[in-house]
Structures are given as structure tokens and as C-alpha cells.
Write a sequence for this structure.
């Protein structure tokens, strides 16, 4: 199992609960979420008035048990009741057991069998939030905003999101046929994808345009914080200590562990709050702060975001934006500002429950609103970008509301086309531009950069100790 996440809750009393951790998963990953065993959690004190409600439940339970048209076992009834109870709360609380529990545990390993999709469900339709880079779904051209209506010819009607995910899973090397409805296309089309053992490379880096450090973070699992530190040191070495600046790509990053998001944001900050998480009571507040040492040496930083940038990714973007440490560029993020606590309730069962909201350093909640980029840049190299409907937290049924709302009437509306973003995908392709948002970020960074910075010794005084 992976190491214990540092964002452990305060222990209130010991119970039979066996493990708990704080997660920032977005929706459902076709392959996994995450589970880290740690300490215990608290139970609500019994309320005598609740027994009247429990009597209603027992009355229905006994009637179903005795009179349903076919015999039904107790486990099926109780599991269905638990699922219904959690589904009434929000899209991210759930109870898993058996094979679903095994799936939950595999996320932090970054190794699982499947397609590499992040999906949600609304009104019985499976919607793609984002494909993970370098996975079968990504290579097959599945895009954010696609709708999956059939799997292997079976119409996905009346099934749960977990059931749909289970149908997409399978042994590596086996094919699965997805029927896709894509806004802007006249007809549905089929895509056959061969399942693979997904071995994620959560952090990748390279040097762009001679001296710009590019760091692509796909997820916040495992030791991503250490991998980002290693990437920044490698960029220093590759540029001879003279990087112009950095582009941090958080597009289609669905989130992950809170402590890893804090670690990554800390790499670019010298001081100040990174994020706070606030529970149901006024005094239930945990704050996380940066330590001295900016591993990017104060150089310009651009963070790329899109509708698939969710949860832990939004913590990083929000912290760097609030501290004016980075320019956020791209599209408004997903808008998941809630924290899930995963409690192992048995040898092969766990409860994932929303227990807090998180806030950026300035006190903003991104819940159902997302991080608005400083410079909005459409992905012009995607020929379908104008017609694609992006799915965000606010589109999910029973999503939590932000505790502070913005009055959009106060915002000026300007529908004038931006002359910078009128190019066609086909024209950009002829020019060799495959990723317009990244192309625009690199050009912006060159304009932001001043005179060549002094050489920085890799691993020097700007480096930080591991958490």
C-alpha cells in the first residue's frame, strides 16, 4: 500500500472503523480511485428522534422481504438502502465492496486494467470528463464531453455509474466497443478500444522552445510531489540553470490526494496559505501552508487548465493564482471543491463520504464554479471545440452548492469575437501547431520573460525538504 497521506483528520474517538484518508477524486475513474489506511474516525451520537425514521425503514424492509415477487436476500436490500442513502447526498459519496473495493484501492498504485477514462453519469447517460493521456481511450480519440450510449452493443439505460464502469473494465488485451455521441456530429459512431494494463506516468517533463520547462501532471496519486520536484531539478540541469520559465499542464487532470496537491503548490511558493478545508462546524478548519523555498526561482509560471481540471488540480491552480505566482490560462476548470473521506468499514468494504469543502487562499470556494483562467484560450486545434458540451460539477445532479455565490449580473458581457482566436483547426494543422493552448502559453511565456536569469545550481538553496 502507498504511504499515509499527511492530511489526516483530528482523532475524536476510536471506533470499529479501520481506515480513513482524505481524497479529492473528481467522479469515477474507469479503473480506480484511491484508498490509504490510516487512523480512526468518529460516529454521530444517537438521536432518539431518529428511531421514528428507522421504524419507517424497517416497515418497508419487512414488507419487501415478505411480499416481493421473488425472494430477495438481506444483503441485496441493505446494500441497496445504503446506496440510495448516499446517492441522496451528492455525486461523490458512495459505498463500495467486493470488486468495487479492489478497484478503489488501486488508484494510488497508478496501475490498473482498463481504458483510462474519467466519467460521470447524469440522467442515465455516461459522460466523458476526460481521457487520461497515453491511455487506450486517449489514443482512440475519445474526448471530453463525449457521451457513451452503448458498450459492446448494450444500451446503457437504467444502470449505475459503477455498473457502466465495470462493463468497460476487463482483462488487458481484450477489446471493448463504445458507441459515442459527440455534440457537433450528425450520427453516433463506434470506437473499438483494446484494454491495457494502465501504468500511469503521472509526471512528465521536457524542454520546449530551447529553454522553457514544461511539466505535465496527469493525476495527484502516490509520490507526485516528489516527481514534480525531480522534474524541476531536471529542467534546471537541462537548461544549464537558465530556464526562461515554466508551463505546468493540469489539463484533464482529475485530481487525487490532497497532500500531493499541497506539495506541488509548495514547490512554487515561498510562504502563505495553500488551501484550507472546512467541515460542517465553524471550528472544523484545517489550513495548509507553504514553506520557504521557490523551486522555480521566481521565474514566470503559466498553468494550463480546462474543463477536465478537477479537485486537487484546482487546489494547485487556485493557490498559484491567488498568490499571483502563476498566470492561469486555458478554460474554466471542473469546479469540484469538496473533500471525500474514505473509511474502510470491513475487510473488503469502504465508505466514501463528503466531509469538507476546500477554499483557496483568498477564501474562494471553487465548488460548482471552478477556477476561471486569467486568460481564456480556446483549444483551436480541436475542430469540435465549439460544439462540444463540457461537463462540470455544476452539471451533476445533487452537487453541493458553493457557500458564497458570485452575482453574475455584476459581470460585463462582451460577445465581441477575440481576434487572437479566430484561426481554424485545419489552418493551424498546416502550420504544424497540434496544441494551440500550449503554443499560446509558450509564446506568452517568452513575452513575460525578462533578461536571461542568473544560473541556478540544481538542488541548491531553492530546493525544499520532502514532506
Amino acid at each position: 500500500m502507498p504511504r499515509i497521506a499527511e492530511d489526516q483528520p483530528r482523532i475524536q474517538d476510536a471506533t470499529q472503523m479501520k481506515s480513513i484518508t482524505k481524497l479529492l477524486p473528481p467522479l469515477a475513474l474507469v479503473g480506480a480511485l484511491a484508498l490509504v489506511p490510516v487512523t480512526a474516525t468518529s460516529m454521530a451520537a444517537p438521536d432518539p428522534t431518529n428511531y421514528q425514521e428507522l421504524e419507517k425503514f424497517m416497515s418497508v424492509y419487512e414488507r419487501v422481504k415478505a411480499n416481493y415477487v421473488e425472494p430477495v436476500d438481506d444483503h441485496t436490500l441493505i446494500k441497496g438502502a445504503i446506496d440510495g442513502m448516499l446517492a441522496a447526498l451528492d455525486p461523490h459519496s458512495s459505498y463500495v465492496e467486493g470488486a468495487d473495493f479492489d478497484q478503489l484501492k488501486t488508484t494510488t498504485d497508478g496501475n490498473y486494467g482498463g481504458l483510462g477514462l474519467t466519467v460521470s453519469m447524469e440522467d442515465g447517460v455516461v459522460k466523458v470528463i476526460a481521457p487520461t493521456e497515453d491511455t487506450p481511450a486517449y489514443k482512440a480519440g475519445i474526448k471530453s464531453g463525449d457521451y457513451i450510449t452503448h458498450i459492446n452493443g448494450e444500451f446503457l439505460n437504467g444502470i449505475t455509474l459503477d455498473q457502466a464502469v465495470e462493463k468497460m473494465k476487463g482483462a488487458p488485451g481484450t477489446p471493448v466497443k463504445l458507441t459515442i455521441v459527440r455534440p457537433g456530429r450528425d450520427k453516433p459512431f463506434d470506437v473499438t478500444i483494446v484494454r491495457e494494463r494502465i501504468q500511469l506516468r503521472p509526471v512528465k517533463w521536457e524542454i520546449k522552445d530551447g529553454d522553457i520547462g514544461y511539466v505535465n501532471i496527469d493525476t495527484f496519486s502516490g509520490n507526485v510531489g516528489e516527481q514534480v520536484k525531480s522534474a524541476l531539478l531536471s529542467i534546471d540541469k537541462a537548461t544549464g540553470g537558465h530556464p526562461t520559465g515554466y508551463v505546468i499542464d493540469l489539463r484533464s487532470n482529475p485530481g487525487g490526494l490532497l497532500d500531493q496537491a499541497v506539495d506541488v503548490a509548495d514547490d512554487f511558493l515561498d510562504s502563505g496559505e495553500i488551501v484550507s478545508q472546512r467541515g460542517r462546524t465553524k471550528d472544523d478548519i484545517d489550513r495548509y501552508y507553504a514553506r520557504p523555498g521557490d523551486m522555480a526561482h521566481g521565474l514566470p509560471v503559466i498553468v494550463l487548465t480546462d474543463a477536465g481540471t478537477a479537485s486537487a488540480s484546482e487546489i494547485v491552480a487556485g493557490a498559484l493564482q491567488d498568490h499571483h505566482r502563476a498566470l492561469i490560462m486555458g478554460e474554466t476548470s471542473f469546479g469540484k471543491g469538496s473533500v471525500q473521506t474514505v473509511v474502510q468499514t470491513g475487510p473488503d468494504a469502504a465508505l466514501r463520504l463528503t466531509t469538507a469543502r476546500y477554499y483557496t487562499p483568498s477564501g474562494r470556494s471553487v465548488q460548482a464554479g471552478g477556477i476561471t483562467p486569467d486568460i481564456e484560450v480556446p483549444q483551436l486545434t480541436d475542430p469540435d471545440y465549439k460544439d462540444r458540451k463540457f461537463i462540470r460539477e455544476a452539471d451533476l445532479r445533487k452537487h453541493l452548492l458553493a457557500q458564497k455565490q458570485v452575482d453574475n449580473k455584476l459581470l460585463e458581457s462582451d460577445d465581441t469575437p477575440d481576434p487572437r482566436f479566430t484561426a481554424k483547426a485545419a489552418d493551424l494543422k498546416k502550420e504544424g501547431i497540434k496544441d494551440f493552448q500550449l503554443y499560446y502559453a509558450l509564446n506568452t511565456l517568452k513575452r513575460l520573460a525578462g533578461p536571461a536569469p542568473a544560473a541556478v545550481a540544481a538542488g541548491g538553496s531553492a530546493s525544499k525538504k520532502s514532506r
Notes: The CA atoms of residues 119 and 128 lie 5 Å apart. The longest strand covers residues 349-359. Residues 113-199 form a domain with the Pdz3 Domain fold (CATH 2.30.42.10). Residues 1-20, 25-41, 405-412 have pLDDT under 50 and may be disordered.
